Amino acid sequence: MQVQFRYEQIADTIRTAIISGAIKPGDKLRSVRGMSSDLGVSQATIFRAYFDLEASGLIESKPKSGYYVCYHPITPDLPSKTPFENQEKTVKNADLVKEFLSSLNHPDVQLDFGLAVPAPELLPLAKIKKSIQKCYLNDPVAAIGYESVAGNNQLRRQLAQLSLSWDKSFTEDEVIITNGCMEAVALTLSALTQPGDIIAVESPAFYGLLQLMESLNLSVIEIPGDPVAGISIEDLKETLQQKPVKAILLTPNFNNPNGTAIPDQHKKELAEMAAAYQVPIIEDDINGELYFGDKRPKTIKTFDQEGWVIYCSSLSKTLMPGYRIGWCIPGRFHAEILRKKSITNISTSSIVQAITAHFLEFGRYEFHLKKLRNALKTQHLQYKRAIYDCFPNKIASSNPQGGFVLWLELTKSKDALTLYRNALQKGIRIAPGQVFFTHSNFKNYFRISFGAPFTSEIDDAIKTLGQLAKNL
Amino acid sequence: MQVQFRYEQIADTIRTAIISGAIKPGDKLRSVRGMSSDLGVSQATIFRAYFDLEASGLIESKPKSGYYVCYHPITPDLPSKTPFENQEKTVKNADLVKEFLSSLNHPDVQLDFGLAVPAPELLPLAKIKKSIQKCYLNDPVAAIGYESVAGNNQLRRQLAQLSLSWDKSFTEDEVIITNGCMEAVALTLSALTQPGDIIAVESPAFYGLLQLMESLNLSVIEIPGDPVAGISIEDLKETLQQKPVKAILLTPNFNNPNGTAIPDQHKKELAEMAAAYQVPIIEDDINGELYFGDKRPKTIKTFDQEGWVIYCSSLSKTLMPGYRIGWCIPGRFHAEILRKKSITNISTSSIVQAITAHFLEFGRYEFHLKKLRNALKTQHLQYKRAIYDCFPNKIASSNPQGGFVLWLELTKSKDALTLYRNALQKGIRIAPGQVFFTHSNFKNYFRISFGAPFTSEIDDAIKTLGQLAKNL
Question: What pTM, to 2 d.p., does this model score?
Answer without folding.
Answer: 0.89
